Amino acid sequence: MVLTGPLRAAALKLRDGARMRELVRSWAQVVRLSVRLGGLGRFRLLLFALPTVMATLYYGFIATDQYTSEAHFVVRSAARPVGSSFSPMMLLAQLGMASTQDDSFIVQDFMKSRDAIRHLEAQMPLQAMFGKADGDFIAKYPSLLYGRTEEEFYLYIRRMISVVHNDRAGISVLTVKAFDPADANAIADALMRLSEDLVNRVNDRIVKDAVSTGTANLQKAQQRLIEAQAALTTFRNREVMIDPTRNAASLGELIATLASELAVTEAQIREMKQGAMASPQLFALKRKAEALDGQIAQERSRVAGDTSGLAARIAEYERLNLEKTFASRLLSAAEADLTKSRAEATRQLLYLERVVEPHLSDYPTQPRRAAGIATTACANILAYFMVWLFLTGIREHAV
Hints:
The protein is α+β, with helices and mostly antiparallel strands. The chain has helices at 6-35, 40-62, 88-94, 101-111, 114-123, 126-130, 150-160, 181-239, 244-275, 281-303, 310-348, 369-398, and strands spanning 67-77, 161-166, 171-178, 350-356. It folds into three domains: 6-61 and 381-398, no CATH class; 66-211 and 356-369, 2-Layer Sandwich (Bacterial polysaccharide co-polymerase-like); 214-346. A hairpin with a 4-residue loop joins strand 2 (161-166) and strand 3. Helix 2 (40-62) runs antiparallel to helix 12 and helix 5 crosses helix 8 (181-239).
């Protein structure tokens, strides 16, 4: 039968009232169980309360004080990333002072790496610092959680060292925990120095990779220019002339002068033949013309000879001079490329700036005793009621 109208509303109220009474009875049972615990109940209560008791004993009487040393740093580059939006970080980037997030992650990864721990062990007694006799059996090394193997010591150090990067501020925070404030400060300072050495090695590699090719090309261009100049000098010493083209120009001027004088002489001869054939000067003019013509032929042979003429020498000289010109231009281009490569390498250089130096703490920040006890107690209470509800549900279904 389907209930409608007032009958349905009354049925719903009766059902809700039944659920409410059932819930009240359940909480009443919890209260009565908590009040009337005896025998096995006390044992269960003690079992669930044992973690809280142990946490109270540990944090209250056993846990060793731990001191913290912090260092703030930023890794930046001179490069100016391109961006279209305006923001304070973009303005700093355009000024060449923006932090480089990827490079910060490189430094963070190194600080918690095996290489960094190995360098630290070479500089200070790292295991002795964390294995002091007054340290508790859980926090010190070795402990119940970490044995004496190298891998377990590495995992233990990673728990005592943390590096956090703030994306908005661009600042990384190094935190080192130790049982002595001087030890924490020494480890933090050593990690900062090792990170600076890492950045310097990265910079050296950047410069080396950027300028190695340009330097090699520059050396090749210099050697080529030296060889071209040496070949040109050898040619000048062999031919006993500085510039064959200038000698050729001088010979051309001489040939032109002789040709002009020959033309004048031939004109005089023609004139004298027409008017004074018996003149004694006619023979002298003819001899002069012959001498001029022979001199012109001799000078022309000096210019256009097959092997010893100036033309062949000029061709060889121009080839050597052209090789020198090419070598000089190649040297200029190599120098410009090297300068550009060095400038680009300078833009890619990294800088690790210490914003806050590692400090010497005068008060232990770890462990947080009250917070540890309270957290354990809350977890115990929640676990107790979850198990109780689970068991109660099983019993009701069984009935």
